Amino acid sequence: MDFQQGQDFLAGLSEVQSILPFSPVLIRDLFILTAEDSLGSLADVARAVNRDPGLSAAILKTANSAYYGLQSQISTLDRAVSILGMKEIRTMVLFVALRSVNKRIDPNDFDLESFWRHGFAVALTARTVANVLEHRDPSIIYTAGLLHDMGKLFTVLLRPDHWRAINVLAVKDGVPLLEAEEAHWGIDHALIGALALRSWNLPDEITEPISWHHAPLSAPAFQEASAILCLADGLVLTGPDAVDDERRILASLTGKDRTDAAVAAAAECLDGGASVHGVLF
Questions:
Q1: Domains of the chain (ranges, CATH numbers)
Q2: Nearest to 138 by CA among 150, 146, 128, 149
Q3: What is the pLDDT, as a whole number, of residue 278?
Q4: Quick one: pLDDT at residue 279?
């Protein structure tokens, strides 16, 4: 284990701010304006995004992509916010940021399409679970689900040598990636992703569940959200018949009947899935 290299890597994660094609202040402002208890208006969100002309153009391009399948072209940001809603615009701003990360990744080092297909599937599943459990803001859970494995991407981007070594170790020892990460440098992708996204000004209600989605009951806060991510990740990876541990964790927080109902609803949405092209590539 190279513990010091792991700690040094964490200490330098603020450098991911430079990847953003716009100021991280904008992300902070958007999450404030679109919070459940916010008095922010559609016009406020449009004004915030319009502060960056390049971002505005990127948002309009995304809004008019096949992913959204709108009947007619959207030509102004105000109309985009009006049609798609404030929280969807917030998600689209994150899409722009994520495309900037994607462009820096060597496809020989990482399968981006599989990564994002998994991220979208977990996001949709987590939101379904959150809706059944009447979580205060399922859109936040969706975003956390989409970004839950971002630590892998940041590791590939910033330290591809360590990423390769971790994968070699996982194969050699026949252990899950999470165990190989811990053995290699004493940290895992969940913590890496949470700290990196915090430097982008994403709120704690997203970064904390990401940090603890492999150990929800150890989370100092947002345990239910962490458990939802844990369950959604397991459902996508292994299906509803192989998530006994994840179900027990969530049931300890929300009750068995509610958890069973959430799993049943989530299982129905697992067969679907949108293409990641048009929004992230």
A1: 3-269 (1.10.3210.10)
A2: 128
A3: 60
A4: 72
